[in-house]
């Protein structure tokens, strides 16, 4: 059994899920995959079930009743994983915005180089984003700068969704106390790891916008992050935040 598992949340990803699964399984390092599907009406879960016949005991599916936020999907996945013996837990998107080849680099950062949290960072060495309009690049870059300013985290890409956690990090963070379900979930997880004094390392990656399927980003998700960060920092200052 491998010591690493990749959690991939899905909602209407039929155009991508088969390709991403096969790509991860083609890597030189052996990983398992857990797909967390939020009752996709396009049949994503059915595609995964068909793939399970080929990748028996390597590909797993956790089906949820409804679409209830990226954060809750990951938390459900984390809880599933922590009942098993995996030591390195990854989160990544299904749409190839995160290059599966970089999983090995994140793994090595935690396994060999002492990181407790390894972030696939778009902004560690400049702005490494492909196929985004300039307005979205600026929004994302400024959001990360804003979060860094408010929280004082020494992290360039605070909103990154491509991450490897050592098991002990997820065991330390009280998953039931995570408050944010959208964009801000990524920030809250990093902030709690930072408050718990885990070693957070950024690994430069190139982020490529999806070419198939539709983005799940919305205005409400962005506003959750903008206002949520201030509240999160406030609670941490007055020791009201549970790690």
Summarize the structure.
This protein has 8 helices and 9 strands. It is an alpha/beta fold and 243 residues long.
Which labels suit this protein?
Spore Coat Polysaccharide Biosynthesis Protein SpsA, Chain A, 243 residues, alpha/beta, two-stranded parallel ribbon, seven-stranded mixed beta sheet
Q: What report would you give on this structure?
A:
- The chain is α/β, with parallel strands linked by helices and 243 residues long.
- It has one domain: Spore Coat Polysaccharide Biosynthesis Protein SpsA, Chain A.
- The protein contains 8 helices and 9 strands.
- It has helices at 17-25, 44-54, 70-82, 102-111, 134-151, 167-172, 183-195, 219-237; strands at residues 4-10, 32-37, 59-63, 88-91, 117-121, 129-130, 163-166, 200-204, 207-208.
- A 7-stranded mixed β-sheet has the order 3-2-1-4-7-5-8, with helices on both faces. A two-stranded parallel ribbon has the order 6-9.
- Helix 1 (17-25) links the parallel strand 1 (4-10) and strand 2 (32-37).
- Helix 7 packs parallel to helix 8 (219-237).
- The chain starts with a strand and ends in a 6-residue tail after the last helix.
- This is Dolichol-phosphate mannosyltransferase.
- It comes from Salinimicrobium catena.
- Residues 6-172 form the Glycosyltransferase 2-like domain.
- Keywords: Glycosyltransferase, Transferase.
- Pfam families: Glycos_transf_2 (PF00535).
N-to-C series of helices and strands: EHEHEHEHEEHEHHEEH
Q: Provide the structure class.
A: alpha/beta
**Number of helical elements:** 8
Q: Using the coordinates above, name the CATH class.
A: Alpha Beta
Rounded radius of gyration (Å) = 17 Å
Domains, number: 1
**Overall pLDDT confidence:** 91
State the distance separating the first and last CA atoms: 30 Å
Helix content range: 40-55%
């Amino acid at each position: 059994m491998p010591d690493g598992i990749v959690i991939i949340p899905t909602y209407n990803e039929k155009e991508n899920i088969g390709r991403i699964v096969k790509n991860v399984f083609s890597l030189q390092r052996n990983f398992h995959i857990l797909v967390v599907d939020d009752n996709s009406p396009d049949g994503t879960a059915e595609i995964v079930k068909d793939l399970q016949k080929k990748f028996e005991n390597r590909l797993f599916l956790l089906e949820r009743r409804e679409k209830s936020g990226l954060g809750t999907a990951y938390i459900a996945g984390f809880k599933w994983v922590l009942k098993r013996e995996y030591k390195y837990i990854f989160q990544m998107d299904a749409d190839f915005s995160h290059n599966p080849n970089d999983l090995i680099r994140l793994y090595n950062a935690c396994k060999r180089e002492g990181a407790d949290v390894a972030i696939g960072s778009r902004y560690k060495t400049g702005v490494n984003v492909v196929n985004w309009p300039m307005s979205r690049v600026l929004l994302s870059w400024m959001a990360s700068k804003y979060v860094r300013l408010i929280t004082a985290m020494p992290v360039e890409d605070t909103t990154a969704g491509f991450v490897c956690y050592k098991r002990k990090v997820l065991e330390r963070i009280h998953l039931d106390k995570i408050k944010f379900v959208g964009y801000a979930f990524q920030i809250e997880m990093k902030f709690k790891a930072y408050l718990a004094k885990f070693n957070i390392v950024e690994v430069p990656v190139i982020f490529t916008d999806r070419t198939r399927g539709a983005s799940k980003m919305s205005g409400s998700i962005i506003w959750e992050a903008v206002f949520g960060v201030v509240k999160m920092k406030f609670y941490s200052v007055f020791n009201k935040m549970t790690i």
